[in-house]
Design goal:
about 0% strand, two-stranded antiparallel sheet, about 325 residues, single chain, 13 helices, mainly alpha, Cytochrome Bc1 Complex, Chain D, domain 2
């Protein structure tokens, strides 16, 4: 058999596998009967759900799977794993952590992606396609039929709009003081500075965690650990503008240890944290290196304690065929 014949066979096999995957996606959810469904707080027509199913089958099934469980063909190769929509838990939304997001939250993620994860942006999808696929992915979880989205958390006026330096200074104190962000995220202050912040707040710090200049892996509602970001190195997946950071800090991150800070901290303090985290996100490498030397942190503190790739107990190991190996004769 010549090379062209082999290539034709490989192409045919690949095409067959792709069509089978898409067919499974299209057949996975065909159990709705009404002409319109109430999903969250939105009435959705059967026609729109069908449109969303077609979009999902073309762009989403490879990672998120035909049943929306995050077990698509590419899932084993991705870190962090694709979102499991069947749980009805979403990390990034302008609502209190743990509550259902609004459509605009999910549409924003689809349009912009979640850099640097494997979730890309989809500028090729128009607004109608984004809205339709959002409605379709809601059909994977029963939460959308029984619950409503959480109360919207909308940014208030920024008190540091004309005083970025003041916001950064106050935010640095809060990050290493009352908010204790460094208990999960890396510390960007020395032990002496953290003790001084605590004394100013009328508190004492009795001990410091090991590897305090690196993030700590934390359990998540998906059954695997999530590593909080080291902001100068990784940024923030949900966006790094002041408005994006306000939404993430005020709302928290669903399914993780990151709490909802709205009503736990005064608005001025939330905005101060926003400005401080933004200063970390935009910090250049030379400035970061100087900061680490000043506070006594290792030059590569993040790599020292980063968690291994997330374990997915719900994903079976690849078969010998999938690994490219030849199985023994049965």
């Amino acid at each position: 058999m010549g090379t062209p014949d082999v290539l034709r066979l490989v192409t045919a096999a690949t095409t067959t596998a792709l069509l089978a995957t898409l067919a499974a996606a299209c057949a996975a959810r065909d159990d709705w009967a009404p002409e319109a469904l109430l999903l969250g707080d939105v009435s959705v027509s059967r026609h729109e759900i069908e449109r969303g199913r077609q979009v999902y089958a073309e762009y989403c099934v490879g990672c998120h799977g035909a049943r929306g469980d995050g077990r698509g063909p590419a899932a084993r190769m991705l870190e962090p794993p694709p979102r499991d929509f069947t749980k009805g838990i979403f990390k990034f939304a302008g609502v209190p952590s743990g509550t259902l997001p609004h459509d605009e939250d999910l549409e924003r993620i689809i349009a912009r992606g979640l850099f640097p994860s494997a979730m890309p942006d989809f500028p090729l999808l128009d607004a109608a396609d984004r809205r339709a696929v959002v409605q379709y992915l809601k059909t994977f979880s029963p939460r959308w039929a029984s619950s409503r989205p959480g109360a919207r958390i909308v940014p208030t006026d920024d008190p540091f709009a004309d005083d970025d330096a003041g916001g950064i200074q106050r935010g640095r104190h809060l990050y290493h003081g009352i908010a204790e962000c460094w208990s999960c995220h890396p510390s960007y202050a020395s032990r002496a500075e953290i003790s001084a912040f605590a004394r100013t707040d009328g508190r004492t710090v009795d001990s410091f965690r090991d590897a305090m200049f690196a993030p700590v892996p934390k359990p998540s509602d998906w059954g695997f650990d999530i590593v909080p970001p080291d902001f100068p190195v990784e940024g923030v997946k949900s966006g790094s503008s002041l408005e994006d950071l306000y939404r993430t800090i005020a709302s928290g991150v669903g399914g993780t240890a990151m709490p909802t800070w709205r009503e736990s901290l005064p608005e001025n303090d939330i905005w101060a944290l926003v400005h401080y985290v933004r200063s970390l996100v935009v910090m250049d490498r030379a400035t970061l290196a100087r900061l680490r030397r000043t506070i006594g942190a290792p030059a590569h503190s993040t790599a020292a304690v980063s968690a291994p790739p997330a374990a997915r107990p719900d994903l079976t190991p690849p078969s010998p065929h999938e690994r490219g190996e030849l199985a023994e004769n049965p």
